[in-house]
What we know:
The chain is an alpha/beta fold and 259 residues long. The protein is built from eight helices and seven strands, in the order E-H-E-H-E-H-E-H-E-H-E-H-H-H-E.
Amino acid sequence: MDMGIKGRKAIVCASSKGLGKGCALALAGEGVELVISARGAEALEATAEEIRKETGAKVTAIACDVTTPEGRAKLLAACPNPDILVNNAGGPPPGDFRDWSLDDWNKAINDNMLTPIELIKATVDGMISRKFGRIVNITSASVKSPIPILGMSNGARAGLTGFVAGLSRQIVKHNVTINNLLPGPFETDRVRKTAEGAAKQAGKSIDEVLDSRRQQNPAGRFGTIEEFGVACAYFCSSHSGFVTGQNLVMDGGAYNGTL
């Protein structure tokens, strides 16, 4: 299926690896011109070169921290008028809320709620004026089904979801949409990191814990970044203009609900 976005320009945040990389690869495969970002310059440039070789797309790598005003300014200077914005950032650490300071909470809210909002604020009016815009936020399945040890993520990402629910209905008439992808367990460093505490507590290896979790999932496995990227590409496509303010859970069926 041709997504109808060849020649469009996209910013994909936190895309040197994991889910962000999956989104960048899928968009590049559709002929989108990419500006990708991450904090680590070496890994980011390696990913950019991989995408160029695999897809032939134009890829600009901007090493920066998008959770800071300086990082966002650097990213937007490289792509001031994106047609597509994919917001993504590493999630807050797991733990017990009794151990989290106000600084911990402020960082979680800044990284996973306010930073996406600031990038939307910087780009959405240009999208409206051009009568095309696709914004995708990578959040978490915890928005739909909270994960006890990820309280900061639950709260910050739910806040972003609430903001998007209101704004998305105001701008869709201009062919600008905002939707959220809610990943469950995917084969990423993040899933491995969250398994470390459980492995230590149970006296097992991380691989044992991960294998057990794969089998407990209704799909019998974790998702792949390629699957995730295709879903992102659809939300960014010319065919998705009637879909906005939605939350697509991608978790292999782990969320056990009717709605």
